[in-house]
Amino acid sequence: MHSNSSNPSARFILGSVQFGLNYGVSNTHGKVDAVQVKHILQSAREAGIVEIDTAAGYGSAQKVLGHAGVQSFEVGSKFSAEAFGPEPDGKALIAAVEHSLRELRVDQLCYWLVHDPQFLLKSDVDMAAWRAALDTVRADGRVGAIGVSVYAVKEALLLSKLYCFDVVQIPTVPIDHALWHSTDLAILAETYREVHGRSILLQGLLTMPINGLPSYFSPWLKQLKAWHERCAELGVSPVEAAIRMVSSHPHIDKLVVGVTRSEELDELVKFLARGPLASIEAALTDDARLLSPAIWRLEEV
Q1: What positions does the domain NADP-dependent oxidoreductase occupy (predicted)?
Q2: CATH code at position 26
């Protein structure tokens, strides 16, 4: 369900975690300053990007976006389910929506995603109460779609049995074997109205030189070397390779991309226009210790 072929850039969703937090293993600049945020938003407008992704848990990101002015965009946000407990109240969820709207200075969210949906899979969660609360949010009319942001496709398939979620965000790392060889993504695309890919560069890891990597990543040097060597053979940067590979995936509708400078966004738009690239088979792995930044232990090595 790839959207808007006349404007390929509309498949990009501008990520904003860097606007509110020091994010990414390759990040040496810290948070993006307010002036640069405005430049990035202007580049996004000029490129035809229409959506921004943020979250209540991204530090000051929502406020930063609100100050910069995002009324001309569609903005989606995320919330913590755990904060509302096993038996949530619909009014409390609506209050959380209103808080995000106030910070963002917009009237509606195009989507509102559960940021920690694994909480909903806990045995003590009253899913009937959650369904009722989410239905209350849906009926309120200020949220266009309700969804989940997950770490694994199988988790998203389990969650789809609990509630009729519209949108799912999943990690789409180009060296993930399952991304190219599992049938689960096809099922996911039939189950959810829209599938967003995120963590395309694995928090920047795929762009870092092999000899500069923390020792934690030593077990996967073979795959990471294969990734860089094939990119060099193709004459493309790792960023370009990742964008062109993942954007060509038949079951990924949109890509969440984060940048720290407007020039980076301009580059991504050019890369997208250059068309598809095949996956790099020698670089593929199914090891969660590499593919899941949430379980990286960089400081212990």
Answers
A1: 14-282
A2: 3.20.20.100
Q: Is 145 exposed, middle or buried (0-12, 13-18, 19+ CB in 10 A)?
A: middle
Tokens 């609506």 belong to residue: 94
* Per-residue pLDDT reduced to its tens digit, 13-30: 999 999 998 765 554 567
As a three-state string, the secondary structure of the chain is: CCCCCCCHHHHEEEECHHHHCCCCCCCCCCCCCHHHHHHHHHHHHHHCCCEEECCCCCCCHHHHHHHHCCCCCEEEEEECCHHHCCCCCHHHHHHHHHHHHHHHCCCCECEEEECCHHHHHCCCCCHHHHHHHHHHHHHHCCECCEEEECCCHHHHHHHHCCCCCCEEEEECCCCEHHHHHCCHHHHHHHHCCEEEEECCCCCCHHHCCHHHCCHHHHHHHHHHHHHHHHHHHHCCCHHHHHHHHHHCCCCCCEEEECCCCHHHHHHHHHHHHCCCCCCCHHHCECCHHHHCHHHCCHHHC
Query: Which residue segment(s) compose the domain that 246 sits in?
Result: 8-290
Kindly report, residue by residue over 74-98, the tens digit of the pLDDT.
Answer: 999 999 999 999 999 999 999 999 9
Q: Please give the biggest Cα pair distance in the chain.
A: 56
For the segment 159-176, the average pLDDT, to the nearest whole number, is 98
In a domain, 36, yes or no: yes
pLDDT for 221-252, tens place per residue? Answer: 999 999 999 999 999 999 999 999 999 999 99
| Tally of structural domains, the chain | 1
What's the CA gap between 168 and 259, in Å, rounded? 22
Whether residue 297 is contained in a domain is answered as no
Assigned domain for 115 exists: yes
For residue 150, what are its two tokens? 């997950």
Residue 129 belongs to a domain? yes
